[in-house]
Amino acid sequence: MCNVFSLKEIFSSVGMRIAIKKVYEILNEKRLVFMTIQLKEELKTLDQKHFLHPTTSIEQQQTQGPAAIFIEGNGIYLKDIEGNIYIDGMSSLWNVNIGHGRKEIAEVAKEQISTLAFSSCFASFSNEPAIRLATKIASLTPGDLNTVFFTSGGSESNDTAIKLARHYWLLKGQPERQKIISRTHSYHGVAMGATSATGLQAFRDFTNSHAPDFHYVYSESVRNLRETIEALGPETVAAFISEPVQGAGGVNIPQKDYFKEVRKICDEYGILFIADEVITGFGRTGKFFGMEHYGVVPDMMSFAKGVSSGYVQLGGVAISETIHQDLCELSKGTLMHGYTYSGHALACQVGLKNIEILEQENLVENAANMGDAMLEGFRALQEKYSFIGRVRTLGLLGAIELVKSRETGELFETALSPIFVQETMKRGLILRTVTYDQDTVVFSPPLILSRVELDEMLRILDETFEHIRKTIVEKNI
To answer: Is the same domain home to 222 and 313?
Structure first.
């Protein structure tokens, strides 16, 4: 003590208070650190014992515990229990479009939950938020997609679209139209119908009892679609389903006229066209809906994620005026499809506020502008690092491919992208990989992304690529 304070200071009232305060600060800091470690270990043990995680390696969870335990979100950032701050480069699951921690959403939710949190929409019961949100979505969707069926998420939305397509043809007196065609590398969810429509084989292999009447065509081949329809028999095909941009399959952006040709083929054979806008909807691509980039209006459009920015569980299907009128005229009994939370009052009110924020803050335009800037940054990195293959963005959806050879497209024997995203997380950036027949890092930051925040994200990418080059790539050349 004498080395820090003079004797006079120690025995003076002011000096003594300073000394005591410093001791308390040190003890309090150590106590907080100890409590944090203790809490983290407690939560880790409980997580491993009681929480079966979605789309997670069970082995990894049981050996390592949670990759992070988040306690707070603010803007594009997430904070974990240890105080680490991360850029949420994936908007969590492609869905937190307006960013984390929006007080406006909390206020609207509090007001709605205190008046009417939930009431059934079965048997023609209704509520104002559901009516208002359906009307608002109808005003935003392209063409005559004017009627909305609500769900709790993307898988339910795609299951609904598939069931509605088959039910529609039953009402139209064509019960043989039951087959659904989707694209390889497509992802449509994990409910039974949505899983069966998913083109990514790994998801279908999860269960050994597949739903029948699902078929798959090459992702970029209009010719293969026509050939498949002819082989199956056009009179047996109910619908074709596709994402405007394949998200979980690698952020695959189609050729310019692909969907126009698809629309022509569907019209020629009388097949319904379902657009899966679960990831691409509500501004993600720089337009309110991804199909707007291609000048095509589908017969049905499934949505989720960005409709509420993840603040509550919400999704739905928008159907065309033609389909709705046929349902009204031909359906004589009960529509035997519905979820408990279809038209959930709280969820719909949050959805309305979310869309209001998207519009008032011009976040769709910002997604387009920041997406262009993100692509410029990706191209600069591509010039710097020879193991970066193709790069691409559409709005704030992006991808960087990692290759051993740009010329041949040869991949590294061990995929780099899983190692890469581990390294970016160490540096404060959360991303995701796609390794289905590829080695790709994918991006989906919140639509509120600023230029300063984008530059920080690009800086972390540059630093990580340099680390990968020195520690892995140069040793494999």
So the answer is: yes
3-state secondary structure at position 243: coil
Interatomic CA distance for residues 338 and 124, integer angstroms: 12
Cβ(213)–Cβ(169) under 8 Å? no
Q: Which residues contact 401 (CB under 8 A, 6 or more apart)?
A: 388, 389, 390, 391, 438, 439, 440
Closest by alpha carbon to 79, among 48, 108, 36, 49?
A: 36
Strands 432-434, 440-443: pairing is antiparallel
Q: Are 464 and 378 in contact (CB under 8 A)?
A: no
- Domain-embedded: residue 57: no
pLDDT tens figures, 353-397:
999 999 999 999 999 999 999 999 999 999 999 999 999 999 999
Listing from the earlier edge strand, what are the strands of the sheet with 315-320?
A: 145-151, 315-320, 300-303, 272-276, 237-242, 179-183, 214-217
304 lies in some domain = yes
Q: Which residues contact 5 (CB under 8 A, 6 or more apart)?
A: 15, 18, 19
Rounded to whole angstroms, the Cα distance separating 205 from 114 reads 44
Amino acid at 116: L
CB 299 within 8 A of CB 319: yes
pLDDT at 302: 98
Beta strands 214-217 and 179-183: pairing type?
parallel
Do both 174 and 311 map to the same domain? Answer: yes
pLDDT at 19 over 90: no
Token pair listed for 176:
């043989």
